[in-house]
Amino acid sequence: MKGNIKIVTIGGGSSYTPELIEGFIKRKDQLPIREIWLVDIEEGKEKLEIVGNLARRMVKAAGLDWEVHLTLDRREALKDADFVSTQFRVGLLEARIKDERIPLSHGVIGQETNGAGGMLKAFRTVPVILDIVEDMKELCPHAWLVNFTNPSGMVTEAVMRYGAWDKVVGLCNVPIICRKIAAGALKEKEEDLFFRFGGLNHFHWHRVWNKAGEEKTAEVIDKVYATEGGLKKAMQGMNSSGVRNIPDISFLPGQMRHLGIIPCMYHRYYYITDDMLKEELEAYEKGETRAEVVKRTEAELFELYKDPELNVKPPQLEKRGGAFYSDAACELITSIYNDKKTHMVVSTKNNGAISDLPDDVVVEVSSIITANGPVPISWGSFDSSTRGLLQLMKDMELTTIEAAVSGDYDAALQAFTLNPLVPSGRIAQTILDELLVAHKKHLPRFQAKIRELEAK
Amino acid sequence: MKGNIKIVTIGGGSSYTPELIEGFIKRKDQLPIREIWLVDIEEGKEKLEIVGNLARRMVKAAGLDWEVHLTLDRREALKDADFVSTQFRVGLLEARIKDERIPLSHGVIGQETNGAGGMLKAFRTVPVILDIVEDMKELCPHAWLVNFTNPSGMVTEAVMRYGAWDKVVGLCNVPIICRKIAAGALKEKEEDLFFRFGGLNHFHWHRVWNKAGEEKTAEVIDKVYATEGGLKKAMQGMNSSGVRNIPDISFLPGQMRHLGIIPCMYHRYYYITDDMLKEELEAYEKGETRAEVVKRTEAELFELYKDPELNVKPPQLEKRGGAFYSDAACELITSIYNDKKTHMVVSTKNNGAISDLPDDVVVEVSSIITANGPVPISWGSFDSSTRGLLQLMKDMELTTIEAAVSGDYDAALQAFTLNPLVPSGRIAQTILDELLVAHKKHLPRFQAKIRELEAK
Amino acid sequence: MKGNIKIVTIGGGSSYTPELIEGFIKRKDQLPIREIWLVDIEEGKEKLEIVGNLARRMVKAAGLDWEVHLTLDRREALKDADFVSTQFRVGLLEARIKDERIPLSHGVIGQETNGAGGMLKAFRTVPVILDIVEDMKELCPHAWLVNFTNPSGMVTEAVMRYGAWDKVVGLCNVPIICRKIAAGALKEKEEDLFFRFGGLNHFHWHRVWNKAGEEKTAEVIDKVYATEGGLKKAMQGMNSSGVRNIPDISFLPGQMRHLGIIPCMYHRYYYITDDMLKEELEAYEKGETRAEVVKRTEAELFELYKDPELNVKPPQLEKRGGAFYSDAACELITSIYNDKKTHMVVSTKNNGAISDLPDDVVVEVSSIITANGPVPISWGSFDSSTRGLLQLMKDMELTTIEAAVSGDYDAALQAFTLNPLVPSGRIAQTILDELLVAHKKHLPRFQAKIRELEAK
Amino acid sequence: MKGNIKIVTIGGGSSYTPELIEGFIKRKDQLPIREIWLVDIEEGKEKLEIVGNLARRMVKAAGLDWEVHLTLDRREALKDADFVSTQFRVGLLEARIKDERIPLSHGVIGQETNGAGGMLKAFRTVPVILDIVEDMKELCPHAWLVNFTNPSGMVTEAVMRYGAWDKVVGLCNVPIICRKIAAGALKEKEEDLFFRFGGLNHFHWHRVWNKAGEEKTAEVIDKVYATEGGLKKAMQGMNSSGVRNIPDISFLPGQMRHLGIIPCMYHRYYYITDDMLKEELEAYEKGETRAEVVKRTEAELFELYKDPELNVKPPQLEKRGGAFYSDAACELITSIYNDKKTHMVVSTKNNGAISDLPDDVVVEVSSIITANGPVPISWGSFDSSTRGLLQLMKDMELTTIEAAVSGDYDAALQAFTLNPLVPSGRIAQTILDELLVAHKKHLPRFQAKIRELEAK
What we know:
- The structure is a homotetramer of 456-residue chains.
- Chain A is an alpha/beta fold and 456 residues long.
- The first copy, chain A, is 48% helix and 14% strand.
- In chain A, helix 6 links the parallel strand 5 (144-147) and strand 6 (168-170).
- The N and C termini of chain A lie far apart (65 Å).
- Chain A binds chain D through residues 252, 254-255, 257-259, 270-276, 384-385, 387-389, 391-396, 398-399, 402, 408-411, 413-414, 417-418, 420, 423-429, and chain D through 252, 254-255, 257-259, 270-276, 384-385, 387-389, 391-396, 398-399, 402, 408-411, 413-414, 417-418, 420, 423-429.
């Protein structure tokens, strides 16, 4: 029987798309798809063709009758959509290279999700996602927006706060990796563990219990996070090559023990800033920042994708990093469609799940996925070793989004000042100014300031 | 294979016990029981024998090798227990009759769970449950306490707050009835609906969504709660005879519409106090208060239980009211034992689930039942049509428990003043004084005041 | 030198006006008045003439050159005003008689400020005050609104929340009486005591310290509130005849001791509801409800006011009740004008002063009066003997205002259900319906419902 | 007439003492002193003699009969004291030099109040202040503790939280300087302005209004904080030489405009970290860190103090920095003693004054000083440009105090990680380790860890 679901993927020309298609195919029995629309922009047309054709071959090889449409016309695609996933990058990987290299050129971590680079990415992305939301209100008012464009938490917050659109879920693969690490350390099957995650995108902590109800958090900390080399080993041990976006350096054991809850891998930027910076500067010197590596990997991937014989997701995609990302999106869509009550970690409205943050902000927490979207599981409150840092990060996010929406330079500077990854003062200003000018083309709301900076 | 679980039921001579045994038998494949201990006190010895023998016949008829022990020695029973369920009533049904009739003799609703009667029940019960907890700390420190002794929310709160024992869950059958009512009204299967409950024991509200993610709350309100006779019809329509404890009177349609969320049946005491009082006064005049009716029903039940041929739960038990109660306890125990992640509505620590109440108070909310106990699902915040009333009730509970623990008469009077079901002033004082004297035997902590009152 | 302040009093024909004028005269050195405008409506024209002429004689006798204008044209009066005080009663005392007698006819306390009567008064008053605010935005955008129209707290809340006008202060004489009672009980001069008040209008508590920093709260409770007859004695002992609006009945000593903080006189409605109701029903039977008594007193006062020889506030005004009210308004205006930093108890935005209530609601708290208005002094949090009751009252207020603004009958019924002074259920509905019909003329927003009720 | 107040100053040999004595003399009519006890330790004996004799000469020259006692016996001094002021430095200025130089030797700001240095100062000071509190409980249970030992906020928090002593007030001169700066910028008399301060010690913001009630905050920001060189000019313009502890560098104008509220001078460490570090490194290279400069200044001061002809506070003391500090202490004591209701900015329990922080933490806010101590004025909530940063700093303080009390190295490392002035990671650990070893003598609670570090 012909399916009835219409799925739209904005940024459809992404190298991730094969994983997404694979994810849908894997769930074909639960997800009666009729059409998949891959949307991209003019600059991404070639990639869209390549990856779109691969997608078609994959669907065909799976013996499915799904229509795969490729288009540059976003509005045509959105018409009557059921699910819209977003995985675009405004300015493409060239922009990410700037996001990472410009701060590093001043001896500062770039970090394309929560650092200076990530803030610029938010400035570029937020206006576009808000445009998409406006289109959705008109063309597919019942659709769910499944975002995995980074900074995923900020983008989700912007959609809810400024787009006034609540049918949005932010996704990330980091919690998935965290679960695998814990399961590996405990030598347990992942499905035999119960996890509770609380925090923000790329800035969350978790606790874990076994099937007997015993908390195993301290044991995981001890084996993985408070042991020199423990994390590296844990990640090697994983089936997948996992999160390649961040270098593999050990936390400080004493601080980990005091935490009492398990950080995510991105916490290394905040907890061992000096080592992370050192590693990134070395990569910078060699022209091997993560952005540059990814760019090369992507070029290779697209070469592979062109192969007309290829009709499955090539294993090399895992080297790209971001594994599990698209699969999580497929699982989320399937859970909403089937009201599965799956437990997933998503960015959604707090509603009291974390007592230390206002009800109306977006957090990344363990949630039950219903047909009406995610319902968070209560985390409770953090203690003083984490609470204030979390609250600061949320306010950094809110101020970044404020700047992204208003184009107010002073707000942007404030957000830079708040960010723990950016040293405050003239250096913050210098990096901000340089990034603004570099991204001029994709920052329509900051034009006046950029012209002023260029005139200097 | 011989099971390994030891279950202890305090108040084992209760007429409910056959439902409990039936519930365990139904779950025999998930719950490898070794021993069930039914504990009671001297005054309940005869009932314990009767119901205990029925329990043994039931177990035998089911072809199970479970040992069923009957004892008056609580400490012997508690030794190495895995689960302890509590369903006792200090002072037996005679005490309940006083709880209900003394307030009514002054024209005031008694309400043995949240009214004046319920507060006295808390005064009698809290010291006993705290004793049980002290025994558990010594004899079975890893056991879970599953409480369905009323007032279930207050008892659970007392155990956590004054007993410093977190492995406790409070249970009630009201949410189960509410679910059935909603399913009936929507002509949907219960398992196809998603519910979120928030509030306190016998004082909660809920919302409901269907399989397509559409909120059906307004439709349920419209059909059942804002329609004259709607609730009566809904409850007749239920398979079970359900909650017989409270009379069947309609809410005010306009107020229900404004609420926007669905009340529980007990809200009638607060929302249509006048009609409820009128009905109760009629019953009082005829000697047919709920306590008196239950007493007669129980006598009949125990006659039935004596029948040596009887080896199943007799259908007449449902007339007793409280259906589903024991079944819920069995399901809870099974879920904890098997880490089932079942969704149940239980009394547990708030932890932010309801933003309008402190993190550390006990609330009755939708929760996921894990091997480590319940984890609440976020409710979020209430609006002004419910928030303040909920907050008042919580503080009435806290003040009642404070009085129960301290035996402080002034605190007891304050609690009476706070309770919306008790008119404030001399009448509250009069009812309180009369109840204290009437329950003299079971209120060791209030002895000084009671002697003073008697001396008058 | 000619003054420069323009003061407008809406409801200028009130019998209180002479106290107001006296208050201004007393402060003539701090308050350089140029014009006083007394505004009233057509129905109040005669009273306006009488009291206006007395005001002129008073000003003249004081040797002042202030212009006293009498007008029915509110907009003319408001033009360029500096301070606008509001003391009007929509529907005049006839309406108050209905507010009090209709509930009493059903055996329910009327209470024209926070009871059923007060809610109807809010329904009539809120739309009018919001109209005044709209005029002020246009005609005197820098003026302060000093409200002492009851229910003073709700009116102030409505102005801030729905009028979006923050330059408003709500005033009441109850805290002033409370201070005098405490000073009398402690045999201290009022100015030697330090008070902290927290709560809502007619629903606040206070604590008191002496010059040595010792808290004297318990002593005041002991002497006045927890002693039979103590409050009566305390009020007789006062210089003024004080608050005549509420009968003089003793609190319950035990409950007072448990409170630990001092209630206001209006708390008797909530704490000893039965005695208050009894007393009110007796007055009702005799046609001597407070409204009726006041109506007669007022008639006598206006006879006195007509005397062309009278050029001071006649001492008989104190029998009217509400003493200190107008004086408080004069002191407030003087404090704002001179940035005096006076400590006063006013209705203003919470801003955290009471931790148990949201930041953005109006509370009645001790404040410092600056040229920019009141800044509250931190109260902190209440304990469980008061917190929930306070939170309920705030939500009752919010729901009442919601109904007043929207004319939504269901919201009105919800507000009645929430009010602890109104028994819930059909009786609440009956009283509400009867009051709506009785006040038909002054409830434009409820017209559709009223027509429906009349058609029955 | 002989006075009756006994004042004890712990750290009485401080160079500040003459200002304190001057402050008392200035207030002699309001403060009937009988005895002043200057207490110090063996190492400070010589200074105590010098400054104590100057104090005696000052008192005598003022024609007062106050007894000035010098002692090394703290318990003798504390007996029956009315006010105890604390201004000691554990480890003397030598310790401060380490606090500042060790971090700088790793390229990190030392900052002896809120930076790495300040945390070590807290580790040394908290156990001592808690000992003093224990003595006070026994010897002078009614006395007030007036603390101006830095880090003043943390010390006050430790006294309340771990000492369970609420009669403590923390003082600082920074708010006094801030007021003078604003008054100068606005060309207004300080007493004609109304200020509201909110935040933490050395980490607060303020707003200001003029006598007409107009907010002047933006104007002050514009003139002083968002203008290059504005702050320098403002501080030169001050009568006193003011706060010499921190270098004079301009804020970022854009960030200041976005703030909307006025930072304190210490915010430069957080807002323009790079420039501050640069300046401090230059001083470090030259052996002119603030600690070293102060040490020299002090030596000069004590030479002056020795002069037997000197009987007034020498003007050179102002160069020491910390002007107004002791005067503030005298004013505070006088205000408590006389129940003056003075407005002062002090460290005291939050109690809701700042909605974004828990009720029970210590904050530095505008307060009314009564005989019962400070009562905070409501600040309300911060917006996202400041809230999270404030919350982080509070948690850094709490974690620092936790470490100081427990001697837990992991907690200390966590506190270093949380501090925005300390780069996270191995460098934090290195600095912490080095500081612990360097301060070995004054860190009894960290001995085990220090031995471990030394063994490496």
